Amino acid sequence: xxxxxIVNEEPIHTEAPADIxxxxxxxxxxKLTGTKEGCNVGECGACSVxxxxxxxxxxxxxxxxxxxxRVVTIEGIHAEDxxxxxxxxxxxxxxxxxxxxxxPGMVLAGEALLNSNINPTRAEIREAIAGNLCRCxxxxxxxxxxxxxxxxxxxxxxxx
Amino acid sequence: MTDxxxxxxxxxxxxxxxxxxxxxxxTADYYLPGMLISRCLRSKVPHAxxxxxxxxxxxxxxxxxxxxxxxxxxxxxxxGFPIVDMYMLAxxxxxxxxxxxxxxxxxxxxxxxxxxxxxxxxxxxxxxxxDPRQALSPDAPLVGEKPRDAEGYPxxxxxxDYIVRQNDPDAVWKECDLVLDKEYTTMHQEHAYxxxxxxxxxxxxxxxxxxxxxxxxxxxxAKNNIIQTVGLGSEDxxxxxxxxxxxxxxxxxxxxxxxxxxxxxxxxxxRPVKMVFSREESMISSYKRDAxxxxxxxxxxxxxxxxxCQFHGxxxxxxxxxxxxxxxxxxxxxxxxxxxxxACSVDTDxxxxxxxxxxxxxxxxxxEVCFASELAVDEIAYRLNxxxxxxxxxxxxxxxxxxxxxxxxxxxxxLAECLQQVRKLSDWDRKRKEFxxxxxxxxxxxxxxxGIGVAAxxxxxxxxxxxxxxxxGTLRINDDNTLTLTSGLTDYGSGSRxxxxxxxxxxLGINPSRIHMLRPDTDTAIDSxxxxxxRATVLGGNATQVTAMRxxxxxxxxxxxxxxxxIVDILRDGENYIGPNEEPASFDKVVDHARQMGLTLSTEGxxxxxxxxxxxxxxxxxxYFAYHFGAQVAEVLVDTGTGKVEVTGYWGVxxxxxxxxxxxxxxxxxxxxxxxxxxxLMERVDFDKGFIQATNFDEYIIPTAMDVPEIVxxxxxxxxxxxxxxxxxxxxPSLVPAAPAIINAIFHATGRRIQxxxxxxxxxxxxxxxxxxxxxxxxxLGLHQV
Lengths: 160, 786
Description:
Chain A: One of its GO terms (molecular function) is 2 iron, 2 sulfur cluster binding. The complex is a heterodimer of chains A (160) and B (786). Chain A is of the alpha+beta class.
């Protein structure tokens, strides 16, 4: 079938099998390989993307369900100059990254949280990323990075 | 040391940027023109003789380019280290559910699945062996390759056995006021790297050779296995390790099979061949941390002096040896824990069964025995009405002590300091008083109870007497005056690339941003043995330092020539070289001058670990050149109505020597403790008649961000004379004591000592496991999953 959707602000018009999951559509057809497959049953969150701003596991969603909608993958998260945005920079500075396989999903989970809650507690951050498994870091530095970004965005909000 | 520029200073991980941007390419992220996909047909029975495999029909299916069995490999693809008992594809027998039988490469999923269905395999079922305790009884089915002995004992099921001997415990029991006699068990643990196994083999023109991209533990072992089983020359195989999504010891043997299979399929088809495991395939077919049954007898005096330790362990290696002979040796060496005894005897039997297969996993045999011995020592403390930290301080190994193996320790030992620091950091003494000791008879159901527990660890550094231990690093100054650094040791997330970069920068006095470290590649790096046993920092770090010192000497020569002075008269200021007249010359200027002098600006450095020796006959020796020490404290909140355990606080203090990469070492500590928390409370691999019961993360539960408390870490930076800039290792020992610390805290809260892992709801609540009979459905379904 023909798919028409917006991925990372870019209109996509392409043909793919009707029963393809959004995850495999992104990876196999659009070669957006920043979105990872870890379990394919919606448990690990490595395939997290934003669908109309909401965090979803792209392995549990058919590409057809995303038709006509907006998808943001990790490739769509960056600063204006194409470098890391403030959250990504915080992940680097706080040591939130080890093997890196869960990190695209973690960054998107962080963005989804900060879009809806600019002042989360550490417990709220932990809850927001509880659908994203990480086997390396023990999560603490990821929580640090998201919390630091929240504080910075609040400050910036006050200044603006 | 305050004069260091980079070591121990806040630094970012060298490969973090591409990981946060999503541009880091892992093996599964490669898509090449004409690339085929591939998959294995795997055994759905735990034990059977292979009568025949007919692939003729599968080969005829349109879109199928290659179908292979063991007959396509030299010597049926037999491989393995240290014991050779595995095949690239099953030969004569399948020995566990998930054993690979044949592999197919095809253009698309439909052809691939049709081909897998069309392979005809005739199997004759054999009786399975599922209870490791029964492995050596006369009527046990024979799983190993050696025959029965004259009395009919299944000699082949005993993979190997080890001992440690120090005096005779039987002569000491009568001097003891308390003798504890207990059995403990641990289960298999799944590595649960979020990236599943993946390999991509790209054939060279006319199939003259092959390049493989794969997320394996050691590209060099992978290459050697291809050379030996596929029959290519050393110059015809190149193995490159792209970014790896976690390994934790788990990407060895299973990956070497996958790599050899894809290499063979690529050579036959003349097309690139990619194989990526589904989570189900990964969990069913990959090896696990071995399960252990451990019997401890420990005697002590009333004053808390530990007197004698006797241990008997049975290790379930499953269907193949893999690296279990080495993990079990490490279990044997560490079974008595970091304490002084007058007498000690350790016996470990490693047996074959049809329960999957076991291999390396972070902690490598020490995780199991540390769990059990730290529970035993803790129980002795409680029985003697002693504070558990006091008892450990009374008995713990200190500088100059002799271990139960007969090894005299050096001055790097700092376990007492770790225990004292963790006591202070965790506010142990106050909490011990405040959280009243639990008594099962007096607890009201539903009451929430707090507890606090401790565990100590020692962990032998690197490979020990398992084998020759050395590493090599290389450095080269490029035309643009950047530097290229290589190491034969790999980084699957642990941070060793950053550690090596910092060591090279510090040694050369140049900015780390000048240095680019290549990914491990058998064509550019030099074999340094496997990246296992937490050996990267010490082995690879020293090799990096040696090669950097050599390059530094060349550049100092050039600077001396430039300044017309002696080398000793040259000082450094940042990257600048300062001559005797205080004239600075930039790094670039010195490098250019070195080029004009015709000096070669590349170096190679090897570091050999100090000698170890072990007598397998007498059970004595110097098993490791040094040890890491550490102590951890856990605080828990137990719901006595449901059995739910929440870990509410956690403190870890480790004797790491000099910290090189602060943010990295904390990440290792937090991550290790989190894996240990999972091992303690939730991670469960059950085999029911050989069928694994959990095949994905819906049933195999690993800790989420909500299961882990805020962790406080600290390091005793007593410099280690054999480490680079005084550093020791951290990766494994961070995990090892976590489970016993948590289980000891549960005892403090509830008065119930859980001797079998994991401490699930029912074990915490009623002291036994309510698990019902399993089924083979999920496992069989998982093998069909794509």
